[in-house]
Amino acid sequence: xxxxxxxxxxxxxxxxxxxxxxxxxxxxxxxxxxxxxxxxxxxxxxxxxxxxxxxxxxxxxxxxxxxxxxxxxxxxxxxxxxxxxxxxxxxxxxxxxxxxxxxxxxxxxxxxxxxxxxxxxxxxxxxxxxxxxxxxxxxxxxxxxxxxxxxxxxxxxxxxxxxxxxxxxxxxxxxxxxxxxxxxxxxxxxxxxxxxxxxxxxxxxxxxxxxxxxxxxxxxxxxxxxxxxxxxxxxxxxxxxxxxxxxxxxxxxxxxxxxxxxxxxxxxxxxxxxxxxxxxxxxxxxxxxxxxxxxxxxxxxxxx
Amino acid sequence: xxxxxxxxxxxxxxxxxxxxxxxxxxxxxxxxxxxxxxxxxxxxxxxxxxxxxxxxxxxxxxxxxxxxxxxxxxxxxxxxxxxxxxxxxxxxxxxxxxxxxxxxxxxxxxxxxxxxxxxxxxxxxxxxxxxxxxxxxxxxxxxxxxxxxxxxxxxxxxxxxxxxxxxxxxxxxxxxxxxxxxxxxxxxxxxxxxxxxxxxxxxxxxxxxxxxxxxxxxxxxxxxxxxxxxxxxxxxxxxxxxxxxxxxxxxxxxxxxxxxxxxxxxxxxxxxxxxxxxxxxxxxxxxxxxxxxxxxxxxxxxxx
Lengths: 304, 304
Hints:
Two copies of one chain form a homodimer.
Chain A: E1 3-9, E2 23-28, E3 31-37, H1 41-47, E4 55-59, H2 71-80, E5 87-91, H3 95-107, E6 114-118, E7 125-129, E8 133-139, E9 147-153, E10 159-160, H4 162-167, H5 172-179, E11 184-185, E12 191-192, H6 194-197, E13 198-199, E14 206-210, H7 218-223, E15 228-232, H8 240-246, H9 251-260, E16 265-269, H10 279-286, E17 292-294, E18 300-302
Parallel strand pairs in A: 3-4, 4-5, 5-6, 14-15, 15-16, 16-17
Antiparallel strand pairs in A: 1-2, 1-18, 2-3, 7-8, 8-9, 9-14, 10-13, 11-12
Helix pairs in contact in A: 9-10
């Protein structure tokens, strides 16, 4: 089952001729989550062959335009395409006011509801949970209320060894309880231990999105050990003061969070346009955390 | 002095992976006018090397999203770039309500004013007039109130023949009155006629933008003899009923307007995505009006 992240945009503040503002797609078992939605997101979704109708959950980290100006256009297109599925938007409650006028204008022709879920900017909050995944928001530190998002696969039960089902004639009704931890007694009253009957399940995978934020150590615990961490990196170390002032991070700071949180892989993005090429960011981050990659448009990062 | 139109986008309703929604730039003597502003307009402006700070006048034909969803992003970017020039927006008065929430959010950091000029959907109305140009809006026929725009260079005065200024020793103070039609009396009381002293001025150039509209003959008089006419052409003749129902035009209808208005050149665009290639539109229009061209992204049409 796939667990993969695709970068639609990673520009900071202003789109350029090559870079789109922030937007990412996380594919978890063929369920598609949209994370932030800057202007042009729907264009990038089409370009990268995503089916717009597959998106029902949209997570907006904060209300700076480069993270949500594409939302109204996406909703309008979904409406024009005849979408009938409700759309869940996880964002600051204020978003309703901001896009109210435009939504009202479209409403009469929309065959679906938009359900707003307000974010909590004081503490982590579970936004969505089912058998496969948990999505949690967590506050970061920016000039306006801002959340990151953590996507975690659920821990699966161990797998029962198929050849032993046959060998010990295990009835179907026992399989679930064995998976959940029980031993098995054969007809000859022989006890086969749970640990001998099963193989451990695959490690659950996880992705954390640390959008616009100053260097903020409280996130370390939250993103601890994730397979993939995106952490904004608007500046390089030579503009550390500016990063602090604008409540953004440097590449070195992003890498420091990654290192302290013991994540497996780090993506950096949201680079300021003052830097012409992203190589400087990569070099700076890699000197602290070697497993760093650039979150550039169109790239997909698969977690096996 | 240039008089040229650049197409930023010409998709209908929904942007695709290759086509942006409607937006055009008209350059009149190095003054830049933005006509409609679909999502991603600012991205296209950058791609095509337009300087965003040069745009102070934005004309929005109507409030369907594919004609204005890029406006808020453009304003936000102008603000982030430190623009200080007021922005004039010519649009349905309702636009203020639609984007109010988003503008309020940005306002504290904006160093310029946004001045809204409501369009008149009952009759033609001069929106802007100075020594060089007149911009007039005119109603077309669509499912919501919609205007087209006519951009006309002012008729220049005749040019005085330089060699005759010397020959007859014409004082500087007389030049303007001669240009305006006066004859000239030499010291020997010889009268030199205005028509001998001057060469006719260049013909004023004009561009008309007929955005989303059903076939609507009242526009013929308004766009009569323009050098360049853009007329929407969402459908081909095989979908004439659908065109009528949705209040759009076919390629044949666009060409018929061009022919009846005796324009010099026709551009067609806003093609429905149901047609995979635009050649069918061109063929259909050319059969009525041979001087037809496709309004495709990135193309510039210069009027000499």
